[in-house]
Design a protein that fits this description.
about 140 residues, binds 1,3,4-trihydroxy-5-OXO-cyclohexanecarboxylic acid
């Protein structure tokens, strides 16, 4: 299968910011582990801090499934929500942390309703579990 992993705002700081929440591995290290978990599949990785660039990446995605950690955009970006609704490739929402155990503003996702499902709370394995679920379906 062909997977596109999209990471949104501040995810480039993974490994440097809030290590107690997001761990000490960098995003590149995590992406390397994800790719080695799926040796028979094609994994593309994209990160941006810009909402519009993420929308454009969604519009132009050519793959079987998208694994999206939109970061804080999750909680307020109607633009990303509309971009997901505009495409036919299925999108799974992921979060490394268990957002439901954290501040109340993180309990609300404006993208969940247009995603195939949500996986949160398993650290880097949230990405792997999401991609595995595409393989099961
Ligand atoms: C996050 C959770 C978001 O609330 C937060 O803004 C992030 C990362 C996660 O992976 O747990 O940047 O999406």
């Amino acid at each position: 299968m062909k997977f596109l992993f999209i990471n949104g705002v501040n995810l480039n700081m993974t490994g440097k910011r809030e290590k107690g929440v997001y761990g000490s591995q960098t995003l590149d290290e995590i992406n390397g582990e994800i790719a080695s978990h799926f040796p028979e599949d094609i994994c593309e990785f994209y990160q941006s801090n810009n909402e519009g660039d993420i929308c454009t990446k969604l519009h132009t995605a050519d793959c079987d499934g998208i694994i999206l950690n939109a970061g804080a955009f999750t909680h307020y970006s109607y633009a990303i929500r509309d971009a997901i609704a505009a495409i036919s490739v299925p999108v799974i929402e992921v979060h490394m942390s268990n957002v439901f155990k954290r501040e109340e503003f993180r309990h609300k996702s404006v993208i969940s309703e247009v995603c195939a499902g949500t996986i949160a709370g398993f650290g880097k394995n949230s990405y792997i579990l999401a991609a595995e679920s595409f393989k099961l379906s």
